Amino acid sequence: MTSADVDTPLTKLVGEKTAKALAVHLDLYTAGDLLHHVPRRYDQRGEHTDMRTLEIGEEVTVLAQVLRTTTRPMRQRRGSMLEVVVGDGAGGQLVLTYFQQAWRERDLRPGRWGLFAGKVSDFRGRRQLNSPEYVLLDQGAADGEVAAEVEEFAGALIPVYPAAAAVPTWVIARCVRVVLDTVTMPPDATPSRIRAERKLIDLATALHEIHRPSSKELLYIAKRRLAWDEAFAVQLTLVRRKRDAAAWPAKPRPRRDGGLLAGFDAALPFTLTDGQLAVGEEIAADLAVAHPMHRLLQGEVGAGKTLVALRAMLQVVDAGGQAALLAPTEVLATQHHRGITRMLGPAGRADELDGDPNGTQVALVTGSQGAAARRKVLAKLADGSAGLVIGTHALLYEGVDFADLGLVVVDEQHRFGVEQRDALRAKAEQPPHVLVMTATPIPRTVAMTVYGDLEVSTLSQLPGGRSPIASHVVPVAEKPAFLDRAWRRVVEEVQQGHQAYVVCPRIGDSGTDDDTPPPDDAVEDERRPPVAVLDVAPLLAEGPLRGLRIGVLHGKLPADEKDAIMRTFSAGQLDVLVATTVIEVGVDVPNATAMVILDADRFGVSQLHQLRGRVGRGSAAGLCLLVTEAVAGTPARERLDAVASTLDGFRLAELDLEQRREGDVLGAAQSGRRSHLRLLSLLRDRDLIGEARAEAESLLAEDPDLSAHPLLAAQITRLVDDDRAEYLQKG
């Protein structure tokens, strides 16, 4: 064979058929792709995979020993079934079933060890694999390829790869072995100075050790080196884009004495918190320069982010520009419009008789507006008379034009796709300043890795007058009477003159109408569908909440009906609002003190924290009851117990990251494409990410275009392709 390198197609190395399977099922095409398809874990004989932790429906590969075999005739049809019981060495067992394959009993003799791959199912309380693929690791294998596996794995750490049914882990291992023995490794792209200072082994050694580890110590060192490559590539990409963005031109929007902002501040009936003042100064300074602001404003529910954003918007209007606030739902957009108009008073009604002629106008743009109202609003945007614009994704439509868009504020930015945010930004002649807000606290390493091209401001101080929120888990499977007590607590709150929310995961009436996505770590629940608003509301009205005024709110109601219901609830004319997560962000009813979240285990940690932030917004204490059938000791129950135990959103964000799969930090799910990032952990590798950030800033200060480091530039292109780099830049 001619010399091969990392760009050599797999068809030339492992054969047409196997290469096609690797391409179709695992998106692997070249030798380099395969070398960076790293093992998910490593097994070793004498150590065990705890079979009791396997999930039903999961595709697994387990290292196990044959304990016993039984062949018996089938009841419903002719022929026999071979049943093989395998164990993990620690009491866990799986049953392997083979139909009409009694001959396998000669292979699968008690005492033999093997790798077994298949989908976990359940039969009469026993976990089993139906007709699993396997490779035996004991001596005596007749097949030449299997004998090679035995030699490879005997006494060694056994790599278990992310695999597919058509390409089991041992086939991948066999292909990796061919590539490692054939391919000339690439030169190391990481500068030798950095490798020496960071005590990183060379790339060729790392790739060999990650696939064929000589020891656990060398495996750890190899993982660290490859994780460094990933972190360094991400940080170099982010730092470069941050430097590029800082060089873009933008119209300065400096603060003006005696303008709308000064008048607004003077009329505030309360004092801004130290945090609001400090973050406000950061944003004001950003707006005053000739380069676009790119800032992330994060803070706890109720920390006053909207007030900070409004002050920034007024600064831009004072400087002759327009500011647009993009909200994820019509309910929230309408509430923002109503609240901002109320706070501004006459200064926000320049077009009305009682308005201040030196003020501005506040426009609302939603998808449900009638044609006449829409034309009127769009004219105000186009001629600049509406300085403040609040809207949903309808702001992104063609035909929505601004006279001079100076600031884009994106509320709850995780609700919007990259393209949506960019479409609004493109409506300005020069790049506008951008402020993105989130009430979902972001761990430092996530902020550094996913939002690393943004400056980050944090509001951690709650305004005065906010009340504490008590949270409790209501375990109905163990203590059914607790649910009755939960409904009595709702009645008690209403009797004291307060209001309550009841939150459900589903709307009802159809199987595809959910407002609420499952949490990232959710396992498909086979017991029953989640409870639905349209089912729960009448049951409560006829049962434990009989006599109370109950309203229903969900995402499929017409916009005017949603707005009317929220107005009615805000005015105190409803006692209880039964809703989906449409109330998750922005809804502000200070008199609402209680919330019951049904099937709380169907929600993610951050979502639960957001939801309970809807209560305790006034002077009375808040109460949040998390109703669940999850039993003690399960991951779902542990998640709820953690939420109930703390109001620290940043601690919960860390927990969220710990409990769910971190996924691809560059948003492969958004782009729908495979990423080379495999080993970087936002939790485990905090220090590594910080070191990579520092090295990236230092290197790019010396060599902005990486012209002196062409291999490193090529590595970034491989690890962070153009689509994903664009995702980072826009995010």
TrEMBL record:
Q: Which GO terms describe its biological process?
A: DNA repair
Segments of skewed composition (Acidic residues): 511-524
The cross-references to CDD domains, in alphabetical order and at most eight, read: DEXHc_RecG, RecG_wedge_OBF
Superkingdom, taxonomy of origin: Bacteria
| InterPro entries referenced in this protein's UniProt entry, alphabetically | DEAD/DEAH_box_helicase_dom (IPR011545), Helicase_ATP-bd (IPR014001), Helicase_C-like (IPR001650), NA-bd_OB-fold (IPR012340), P-loop_NTPase (IPR027417), RecG/Mfd (IPR047112), RecG_dom3_C (IPR045562), RecG_wedge (IPR033454)
Domain Helicase ATP-binding: where? Answer: 286-459
Keyword list, A-Z: ATP-binding, DNA damage, DNA repair, DNA-binding, Helicase, Hydrolase, Nucleotide-binding
Q: For this protein, what is any one GO molecular function term? A: hydrolase activity
Q: Where is this region: Disordered?
A: 505-527
Looking up NCBIfam families in the UniProt record yields: PRK10917.2-1
Helicase C-terminal domain span:
482-658
Entries under Pfam families matching the protein:
DEAD, Helicase_C, RecG_dom3_C, RecG_wedge
Stated name of the protein: Probable DNA 3'-5' helicase RecG
Is the keyword tRNA-binding assigned to this protein? no
